[in-house]
Design brief:
1 helix; about 50 residues; three-stranded antiparallel beta sheet; about 60% helix; single chain; alpha+beta
C-alpha cells in the first residue's frame, strides 16, 4: 500500500495496482483493524499466563 503526492494530485496504489482513494482507505483501515485484533489476542495470552 502506498500513497504518493505529485503535481497531478494523490495517487494510491495497492500491490502496484492504482486504486481509488476510497478503496485505499477502506483497505488501510481493514489492515489496521486486523493488526489491532492480532495484538489484542497476543495481549490476552500474556494476561492468561500471569
Amino acid at each position: 500500500m502506498a500513497a504518493h503526492h505529485n503535481r497531478a494530485g494523490w495517487r494510491f496504489t495497492i500491490n502496484g495496482e492504482q486504486v481509488s482513494e476510497g478503496t485505499y482507505k477502506r483497505r488501510y483501515i481493514a489492515a489496521l483493524e486486523a493488526e489491532n485484533e492480532a495484538l489484542h489476542e497476543k495481549l490476552a495470552k500474556i494476561f492468561d499466563l500471569i
